[in-house]
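Lab notebook, bench 4. The sequencing result for the construct came back, and we need a structural model before the next group meeting so we can plan mutations. Quick request posted to the team channel:

Model the 3D structure of this chain.
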Amino acid sequence: MPNSPILAPSILAADFRQLGAEIAACEAAGADWIHVDVMDGHFVPNLTLGPVVVEACRKSTDLPLDVHLMIEKPENLLSAFAKAGADRLTVHVETCPHLHRTIQQIKDLGCKAGVTLNPATPIMAIEPILPFVDLVLVMSVNPGFGGQTFIEESVAKIAVLRARLDSVNPHAWLEVDGGISEATLPRVRRAGADAFVAGSAVFRHPKGITEGVRVLKSALNTK
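Done. Here's the predicted structure in token form:
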């Protein structure tokens, strides 16, 4: 596993009345990336935000913006999100019938390219694209809403994916999103993940964002 561990707070759990301030608090506390969940109300049962919010995030931080597109026909909006300031664009295998083309489109826009698979989607669905991506995102909840319970079977899935990536694309990030907390993070870290998305555990920590980031960064070093 060549990559140093990354913590990426998800603004899905942030207070949008003070989004800029909360992103700044994450950065000051030591977060590594900012994760942005884009949902269209069709592929997933929720509607969140578009390029204008990504642009606002870009103006609020120098951290990489890790944009997760939970949308149908993502190829139609890749350029808009790239222009808004996304550093990484991750699409779902379930929405991309021409996945190699979509990944290449992302790279042509100057962004890092990632692929996501839902909890019920088998690893074999992304096998052909593994050598060509910069990031693989494993959903450890069914996408659509924050604050869900971690799906235990995700741990074994991450371990298998780590072995596959080490074989064909060892520098790709293996990211996990859903139910990440002080309790679950060390387990998925040991399984081989190296990037961790956390929403509620950061933005809704009872002692505030700074403590939420500190606790999770500490958990990254738990064996």
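The chain has a mean pLDDT of 94.
Will bring this to the meeting.
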